[in-house]
């Protein structure tokens, strides 16, 4: 899943109007779906929906950060990617803890709410993933945006399947298992993002200040 190539020399790409327009649309979609899923997750008692809502919230912040650094030097893009990767990992750890708590004290969620909202979230994330697919081989910042979008679409499919499991078994376990799996996927993606960002920061010669190198790189 981690990107093994580096597009750091293609500096013109990051101010591409198509890239920025795609991010603005993705930001609006994710911000709106965060509000829908957090309300539905709390009302329906679904940890998987709440986990997905946190994902939407994190992605909204990620797209905002990406828009802020899209035209900046590689070092700043890599630093932003490191922040995003660390945030994704921390949110994943939170979801794991919440699922563990619900396994002891929680009740079965409303399967109908999970199914309807899960399908709506899947459609939203597929739209975003298709828009960002062409940018999946960029630097750590672009790669992190693609990883988040792809992971979200996979997670939405799992939420819909969990809704069917909750309905058929009248048990919270399908919801909790999916929440834990989504957290593990997010943790893996966060680690990959941080690793690539660190590799890009290490690519600068140690004898020259990294910010100076970044400004030189950005001026090419």
From TrEMBL:
It comes from the Bacteria. Its main location: membrane. GO terms for cellular component: plasma membrane. The chain crosses the membrane at residues 22-44, 56-76, 88-107, 113-133, 153-170, 176-194. InterPro entries: Cation_efflux_TM, Cation_efflux_TMD_sf, CDF/SLC30A. SUPFAM superfamilies: Cation efflux protein transmembrane domain-like (SSF161111). It holds the Pfam family Cation_efflux. Keywords: Ion transport, Membrane, Plasmid, Transmembrane, Transmembrane helix, Transport, Zinc, Zinc transport. Coiled coil: none annotated. Gene3D superfamilies: Cation efflux protein transmembrane domain (1.20.1510.10). Residues 23-201 form the Cation efflux protein transmembrane domain. The lineage of its organism: Bacteria, Pseudomonadati, Pseudomonadota, Alphaproteobacteria, Sphingomonadales. It is a multi-pass membrane protein. It is found in: Membrane. This is Cation transporter. One of its GO terms (molecular function) is zinc ion transmembrane transporter activity.
